[in-house]
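ok so for the tutorial part 2 we go from a plain amino acid sequence to predicted structure tokens. step 1 is just haveing the sequence, like this:
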Amino acid sequence: MTKSAVCRADVIGWMHGVAAVAMLILACLAAPAASAAGALSAQALDGPPVSHCLAIADARPPFRLAATGNTLSPHDVSITFVGHSTFLIESAAGVTIATDYNGYAGGTIPRVVTMNHAHSSHYTHLPDPAIEHVLRGWATGEGPARYHLQVDDVLIRNVTTDIRAGGQTMEADGNSIFIFEVAGLCIGHLGHLHHRLTDDHYARIGRIDVLMVPVDGSYTMGSEGMLEVARRLRSSIILPMHYFGQISFNRFLADMGREVRVEVNAGPSFVLSLNALPERPKILVLPGY
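step 2 — the prediction. this is what the tokens look like for a chain of 289 residues:
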């Protein structure tokens, strides 16, 4: 049996327990990029892309830190903090994604942008027409935003939450938590999260390896609530965003640093692979806000 066949067989059998899931991940990592692409194509013929973040949310083997290079392999993803709540995510296949896109993505035109509309710094009404996919994360007259989109080697989906619309009024489905599944990793952006998540939210999100968290503590939910989200999603890396100066940022680090270690990155970008996830959760600070 070929490695790609092993990978597909394990996808079918993931429900058999933690050991099967561990074998799935190891087999998929070992399979060549061409075989992985073939599996995705076959999957597309059978129906919508399958979320591996939901499939293995309840069972994940431990991983050890490993050095990563500057060139993206099929098992790497690059993440750059552009500023405020915008990150630029890049896959090995060249898919570029800007989160909470307000018209600026660090001087590049991404292929995909996601947006939320709590404030104008999180969206634009005039996205560049060269952008292939513009994903607005709020409800319209057609109902809540719903995305389950495969773009080359990235699966993008969302789970909606409510936002404050002024005073105590809540706007239903006004925010989206966007999830990006790439290189075996599950990357989640909380957007402008205003309230604690329900069990139904967690069930629809699955697991999140890398969690982008708003940390202003006033416009969005406070540190205690954000830490609860990170715990429930079993996030290995927490990326702070959406803060206004050092006071709110230091308060977040003081609150969460009691439970999660803090590491400051040398620059705004880093490259990550599945086997480089830390064994214990950490806050990774990327310069700029």
